[in-house]
Write a structure and sequence with these properties.
alpha/beta; ABC_transporter-like_ATP-bd; binds adenosine-5'-triphosphate; five-stranded antiparallel β-sheet; Rossmann fold; 36% helix
């Protein structure tokens, strides 16, 4: 089997938060996140954030492995190569936007001499150069969401895991975000956890759907939108609702 340089595979992962609880992630087979943009879908509690945290090395699974380009990743490699933007990131109130991004880059091993340069580039990518000296706590919720994205980009990581990054963005910023990840995806695997299926067609290449910790779909957007009963494509919302209904049956 050949692997793309920037692809991730999750093989047989099992993770439960405690001995008595039901596993939050329980993958029988392998899930692939090829190079490009993958939308990670699933109802509340499906295990999306838990899976992202395992891939980023934040949680250690009781079983299974994460591979990058076909090679098993160890925790240190995950921590250094995977940039994870959690749903509610902590942002130090006393830092400026530039300092926050430089700090994120430094945490991933960028030397302090280059970290400010990486921060400036990342802030420019998300359109926040003018806010570079603003204290983070003065930013609006949506602007802070863009700042957090910039912090993730400043790391230069090849694997980007973004947990509901569009939730606080206005429509114009949402469009900018989708354009930005399209450009970045040329040499990266980007996984975006989202509840919004409307952008699937334009914004993503692949789809993975989790439910109850299991993977109920993994494939191209094209195959996700191909209606099984009708010859024509169906809407993303319809495809999603049908998939969950079929899984219920
Ligand atoms: N820190 C935790 N301790 C115990 N159980 C947890 C913890 N975090 C999540 N869980 C449980 O693990 C399961 C998966 O949760 P997770 O947050 O990964 O789902 P999700 O798909 O990201 O949900 P949402 O769309 O609501 O963000 C749920 O049953 C949840 O209650």
């Amino acid at each position: 089997m050949s692997f793309q340089a920037a692809s991730l595979e999750c093989d047989g992962l099992l993770f439960a938060y405690s001995r008595k609880s039901r596993p939050a992630v329980s993958l029988v087979n392998s899930i692939s996140f090829p190079q490009g943009r993958t939308a990670l879908l699933g109802p509340n509690g499906a295990g999306k954030s838990t899976l992202l945290s395992i891939i980023a090395g934040g949680l250690t699974p009781q079983r299974g492995v994460v591979r990058a380009g076909g090679v098993v990743m160890h925790r240190q490699t995950q921590i250094s190569q995977v940039a994870w933007l959690p749903q509610a990131p902590t942002v130090d109130r006393s830092l400026t936007s530039r300092e926050y991004c430089a700090y994120q880059a430094w945490l991933k091993g960028t030397p302090s001499g280059s970290a400010l340069e990486a921060a400036d580039k990342a802030l420019a990518l998300v359109g926040l150069s003018e806010q570079s000296r603003a204290l983070t706590h003065r930013l609006s919720v949506g602007t802070r969401a863009r700042l957090c994205l910039a912090g993730t980009l400043a790391t230069g990581a090849k694997y980007l895991l973004l947990d509901e990054p569009m939730a606080a963005l206005d429509p114009a910023q949402r469009r900018n975000f989708l354009k930005l990840i399209r450009d970045l995806a040329e040499e990266r695997a980007i996984i975006v956890s989202t509840h919004d299926v409307l952008d699937l067609d334009q914004g993503f290449d692949h789809v993975v759907v989790l439910r109850g910790g299991r993977c109920v779909f993994g494939g191209s957007v094209e195959s996700f939108l191909a209606g099984s009963e009708h010859a024509q494509r169906i809407s993303a919302t319809e495809a999603y609702v049908r998939l969950l209904a079929e899984d219920d049956a």
